[in-house]
Amino acid sequence: MYKLLSTIFNFVNRSIMSHKAVIHPSVKLGLFAKIINRSLTKQNIIIGKNCSLHGVIICNKNGKLSIGNYTTIRFKSIVGIEEYISIGNHVIISNNVSIFDNNNHPTSPIKRKNMSESGFESDLWHWEHSKSAPIIIEDNVWVGQNASILKGVTIGRGSIIAMNAVVTKSVPSFSIVAGNPAKIVKKIDDDM
């Protein structure tokens, strides 16, 4: 019964999301998967073959997202794109991960005051008023539960981002990083 319901939901969800993104037919869409594409151009979000999406993707007006093959984004994870995010092949993004290429809000106290006074629905709350920089997550990266990846970083292939890590700087290939801010705690042998 579960398999039947899952198949039906996947079909319905795919028909809705296929208008918002270029999704390979082999992609599995979970019950809570959601794509919000404010760019209104479905080619701005590309999801490769044999991926599994259970989280939320929010692509702003000028944002672009590319997800490679065999990548999974698990439950309650969110990918927020103002500019550009690239996620490679064989990437595992665990539960409740936050990946944002922007600050979500201005850092200037005066601009935040104006934002607060303007009302929640005003334009000043939009991401384009915050700083942004592309994020690159290379192939075969594992991002642990509750981790956060911030704007402007590149995570090298084969790396591991530990649970609860806050990645503020680029991570070399085959590294394990942990902490807040994340620091290299170990190098991984390249046995790929």
Helix content: 10-25%
Mean pLDDT score: 91
Q: Say what the CATH topology is.
A: UDP N-Acetylglucosamine Acyltransferase, domain 1
Q: Compute the CA-based radius of gyration.
A: 17 Å
Beta-strand content bin: 25-35%
What string gives the helices and strands in order?
Answer: HEEEEEEEEEEEEHEEEEEEEE
Global shape: globular
Structure described in brief:
By secondary structure, this protein is an alpha/beta fold. The chain is 14% helix and 30% strand.
Structure explained in plain terms:
The chain has a single domain, classed as 3 Solenoid (UDP N-Acetylglucosamine Acyltransferase, domain 1), CATH 2.160.10.10. It contains two helices and 20 strands. It is globular. The strands form three sheets. It has an eight-stranded mixed sheet with strand order 2-5-8-11-14-17-19-20. Helices cover 14% and strands 30% of the residues. The protein is an alpha/beta fold and 192 residues long.
Search tags:
UDP N-Acetylglucosamine Acyltransferase, domain 1, 20 strands, eight-stranded mixed beta sheet, alpha/beta, 14% helix, 2 helices, 192 residues, six-stranded parallel beta sheet
What's the structural blueprint in terms of helices and strands?
Blueprint: H1 2-17, E1 22-23, E2 28-29, E3 34-37, E4 45-47, E5 52-53, E6 56-59, E7 64-67, E8 72-73, E9 78-81, E10 84-87, E11 92-93, E12 98-100, H2 109-118, E13 135-137, E14 142-143, E15 148-149, E16 154-155, E17 160-161, E18 166-167, E19 175-178, E20 183-187
Parallel strand pairs: 1-4, 2-5, 3-6, 4-7, 5-8, 6-9, 7-10, 8-11, 9-12, 10-13, 11-14, 12-15, 13-16, 14-17, 15-18, 17-19
Antiparallel strand pairs: 19-20
